[in-house]
Amino acid sequence: MTTTAPRQRLRELLDQRELIVAPGVFDGISAQLTRRTGHVAGYLTGAGVAASGFGLPDIGLVTAAEMAERARMIVGALGDIPLIADADTGYGAPVNVVRTVRMYDQAGVAAIQLEDQEFPKRCGHLPDKKVVDAAVFERTLAAALDTRSDENLLVIARTDARAPLGLDAAIERANRYAQAGADIIFVEAPQGDGEIERIAREVQAPLLINLVLGGMTPLASAARLQALGYAIAIHPGDLLTRATVGMLQALCELRGGNAADYLPSGPADFFNLVGMAEWLALDTKYAHPEAASWA
To answer: What is the C-alpha separation between 54 and 112, in angstroms, rounded?
Structure first.
């Protein structure tokens, strides 16, 4: 497809070297409000789509087709505002990545984000993540880069190696993925200001940082991130968390309950509101049948 105005706009914003702040959008009203309040970009949050669109936790349960259709709708609601879109691991082997990129490309997103977790993945700020070998993810990147119809459709490479392998490995992977052709690099879940600074200093590529309420990464200010040279700051949970709090308060007022009894304190608590504990119990049951108890 020919390039689009939102894709050109995202390229222009990156060239200006001013931090792009992208709130997490997940449905029509969040996209419309993002546009109407003057934001320059939106971030299609996989966690937000899973929870708001399907009542599911962010543990790899939503499909590529479901995400691509949500992306298409939100692109329409955003108009000329570019959409940066989460595509998890690409939803399978390189051939699956090819189909995923084609669907996101046709949906009109301005950037597609892919990560090096094993599938099914987990939210980046949950424990027990596992990553594939870096060479495996490079094949994912190659499939994405070869498939996009427009070089203005940016490819973001995310590494989740910080938690299972350490920061040194995460930075090594980040630079390796940049050399493989990724347009933007995303090191997920740095822990502490020192790690944020080190990533900015040692990764040779435009950088995206993920600021999650109650997550592992300190909520650095836009001014600080700008000074360090970060290109994009996504805030995937801000809108959804506040909307969830509002819904809990309204529901408890209707029933006479106390919203404080349900309020999440972090990502795990939030995902338990949409059944994460039950889904993980199922995963344990079927992954380890010998541990199942039969009455």
So the answer is: 21
Domains annotated for the chain, with CATH where assigned, are 5-286 (3.20.20.60)
CA pair distance 1, 184, nearest whole angstrom? 21
- The CA-atom distances, in angstroms, between 63 and each of 69, 83, 111, 202 are 10, 19, 18, 34
Considering the entire predicted model, what is its pTM? 0.94
Q: ∠ CA 231-84-60 to the nearest 5 degrees?
A: 115
Strands (E), 14-105: 20-25, 42-44, 83-86
Residue 68 has pLDDT above 70, yes or no: yes
Kindly compute the dihedral angle of the four CA atoms of residues 170, 173, 175, 176, in this order, to the nearest 10 degrees.
180
At residue 20, φ and ψ (nearest 5 deg) are -95, 120
**Which pLDDT does position 283 carry in this prediction?**
87
Residues 6+ away with beta carbon under 8 Å from 19: 222, 225, 226, 230, 231, 232, 233
